[in-house]
Amino acid sequence: MIVSGLHPDVYTNTTLVHGFCKLGNLDMAINYFDEMSRRGLDPDCGAYTARIGADLCLGTSMPWDFYMDCPATRGNGNWNEALRLYGEMHAKGIQPDSCTYSLLFKQFGKDHEFHAVRCLEKDVLSS
Hints:
Blueprint (H helix, E strand, L loop, with lengths): L9 H14 L2 H13 L6 H12 L9 H4 L9 H13 L6 H13 L3 H13 L1
């Protein structure tokens, strides 16, 4: 795209993150997310949620709606990075939306991370 003079915006990069996740190419998904910041674009809630989903589904093949169907399990998903990004969203003043919370709640539950569910619940109720 850039070679032809087109410069992707946040929406385009987020779509690419989703697309590469769908194809199972998480390195490219993460690259496009990181590329936004390198180019001075501010990732929005959708971009962060896509990236968090990529980290939680590390090593899996994800459908387009991977938020709700991600089969991440302990040792497969990258929880540390997903939670770091969630914290980064807050630090930048980006309010997580229902997709972000649904993704995290579902995956915490699947991984039996009940303490994390309670902490996330407190966060949701305080926002």
